[in-house]
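TICKET: design request
STATUS: open
ATTACHED STRUCTURE:
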């Protein structure tokens, strides 16, 4: 198995963005020292009460300057928000600045509110994201200047000043549970993944098919499949639960719309839950309706909280059932105090990772 520090870079009460980023760099330096493989970030926009990460390239370069081993990248760039040629240039430059340590996640975006201020059509986001994979390979190809004529993108006679350190490009990721997108990922050699809001029992058949499709391409290298959720490790199960369980149930408070005047957290959560009744994915809808319920999260093992032994056992069982080999842990959530946060990361790196490193879920 492989392991990542995954960060939304949540807004923190009483912290400025600068202080929050300085805390993030401390987290990543510790991850680098204790055996983590990756660090990943999201790309979110226009919610000062939620995520403070709107520029994955700056995250990658900042993290790279403070670490030596970690492979680093966005999970992922919201492709439709960028000019395709400008994004290709930026990816190449980031990979060079990282000395070939970049991992490259590409996503179409899941929030229409990110698109409106840019004057972009949220409904037309998927096909340009998939087409960008071919565009990137042309931009980074041996033939320079390059040209590309696709349905969404058209470039004539452009020559990049800087090529990526990794050829033909950094490893690609695309977080998705969509069957057609997974077929595309298998065909194009892209690592997929999913989040805790999609039930592992429902994900498993889709990812087993993905593995079959990947194998049929004849590639010798196995893909990675990611899974992201909240994680907290402490000396004992009880201590971990006392410190982190309630906080873990508030980890994704940013999913909620901004609070109205006088509105309680419970009222916001109840309104949010109503949005998922009757949707086409009952399992995912149930999780979303209960994502702020600590008892539900713990009972269904959607979060990983406990001693090193407990967390290792839970992740091992989840990886086997959910067909993933790369755990992307969200370690910094809610108002978790920094001493607890850093102890959790250290225990995960020093005890959980060695316990799971040799395990191959597929």
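STATUS: resolved
RESOLUTION: sequence designed for all positions
ATTACHED SEQUENCE:
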């Amino acid at each position: 198995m492989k392991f990542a520090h995954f960060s939304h870079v949540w807004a923190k009460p009483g912290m400025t963005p600068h202080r929050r980023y300085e805390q993030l760099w401390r987290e990543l330096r510790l991850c680098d020292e204790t055996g983590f493989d990756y660090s990943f970030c999201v790309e979110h926009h226009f919610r000062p009460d939620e995520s403070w990460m709107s520029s994955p390239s700056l995250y990658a370069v900042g993290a790279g300057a403070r670490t030596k081993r970690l492979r680093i990248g966005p999970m992922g760039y919201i492709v439709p928000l960028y000019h395709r040629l400008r994004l290709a240039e930026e990816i190449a430059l980031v990979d060079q600045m990282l000395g070939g340590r970049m991992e490259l996640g590409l996503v179409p975006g899941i929030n229409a509110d990110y698109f409106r201020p840019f004057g972009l059509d949220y409904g037309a986001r998927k096909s340009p994201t998939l087409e960008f994979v071919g565009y990137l390979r042309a931009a980074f190809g041996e033939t320079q200047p390059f040209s590309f004529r696709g349905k969404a993108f058209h470039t004539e006679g452009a020559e990049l000043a800087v090529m990526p350190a990794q050829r033909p490009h950094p490893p690609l990721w695309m977080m998705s549970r969509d069957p057609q997108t997974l077929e595309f990922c298998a065909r194009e050699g892209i690592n997929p993944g999913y989040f805790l809001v999609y039930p592992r029992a429902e994900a498993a058949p889709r990812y087993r098919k993905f593995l079959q499709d990947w194998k049929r391409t004849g590639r010798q290298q196995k893909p990675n499949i990611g899974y992201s959720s909240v994680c907290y490790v402490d000396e004992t199960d009880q201590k971990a639960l006392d410190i982190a369980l309630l906080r873990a149930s508030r980890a994704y408070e940013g999913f909620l719309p901004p609070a109205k005047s006088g509105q309680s957290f419970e009222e916001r959560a109840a309104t949010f839950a109503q949005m998922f009744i009757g949707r086409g994915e009952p399992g995912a809808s149930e999780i979303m309706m209960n994502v702020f319920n600590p008892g539900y999260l713990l009972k269904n093992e959607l979060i990983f909280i406990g001693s090193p032994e407990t967390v290792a056992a839970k992740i091992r069982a989840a990886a086997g059932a959910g067909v993933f080999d790369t755990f992307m842990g969200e370690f910094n959530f809610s108002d978790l105090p920094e001493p607890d946060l850093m102890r959790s990361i250290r225990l995960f790196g020093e005890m959980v990772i060695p316990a799971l490193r040799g395990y191959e879920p597929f």
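CLOSING REMARK: The longest strand covers residues 226-233. The chain has a mean pLDDT of 95.
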